[in-house]
Amino acid sequence: MPDTKSRLITPEQRLSTIPFEVSETSGDHSFTNIRLENYARLPYVDLNLPSMDHHVMIYNYNPPSSTVHYHCGGQHYNGIWQPQAVALLPAFQDNQWLIPESDSGTLHILFPYTAVNKVIQESFDLDPDTLELQSLFDAQSPVLQSLSELMFREMQDKFASGNLYMESLANAAIVHLLNSYSNKAIQRQAHSGKISPQGLQRLIRFIDEHLSQKITLDQLASQLHMSSYHFCRAFKLSSGYTPHQFVILRRTYTARQLLISSQLTPAQIAQQTGFSDQSHMNKQLRREFNMTATQIRA
């Protein structure tokens, strides 16, 4: 086997290596644990790629009808991809592809090796060097299919829901991959249960003070000195909301209050409360109050 770690390429170098254009990426967004690459209309593919320090999950939303040939880490796969099936290319593995058909569509979901290691340490209390993800070719996983579809929709919506939403989806996908497609049976660490009222108040203060900024999962978890995984579970148990749902709720109620009490324009309020734009703010106002910004201010 070649010394793949000496030949590692970055995701950006991979894009410059492949002889065709990616349709869109999440490169301009500062997600800490995920990167998306959409290939809406692949050409005939015959590639031999060096390895990366990223795990790559491939969501086949429009697979080719012909046989796909895939080689990764000493494993050979030949077969027909099913719609919404998932493939997985583990980090540090050279890989070869032959897709003898054009116009198929796939979403590549990249998880940094360091982000996966962090989940292994925090969620399972294991040495990351002892745990490896398996290569997959045509996995039928309802969980991964649902998470991939949500990521794909968010990409099509220009990531309007923000970092917290995407990073939460990524964290859920990583945990499921480790639970279902690794080289050993693992168990999640027990967590202590609910967050104290004082802890919730500290979180609310932090969220309100940073509404105009991107709020990440790691930032919220660090306020309570918890791992991202345990924080998500404890927060939902304590508040009834996911962290992303709660932050959106705080943004929406603050926007409504500013529409009533300030002279700021709706566009200024959207920016001040951390919405991607006025349209996204109106969408949440309609969902919560059944009113647009103009109707609230009237």
TrEMBL record:
HTH araC/xylS-type domain location: 201-298
Gene Ontology molecular function terms on file: DNA-binding transcription factor activity; sequence-specific DNA binding
Matching Pfam families: HTH_18 (PF12833)
SUPFAM superfamilies: Homeodomain-like
Keyword annotations from UniProtKB, A to Z: DNA-binding, Transcription, Transcription regulation
PROSITE patterns: HTH_ARAC_FAMILY_2
Keyword Coiled coil in record: no
Keyword Transcription carried by entry: yes
Protein name, as recorded: AraC family transcriptional regulator
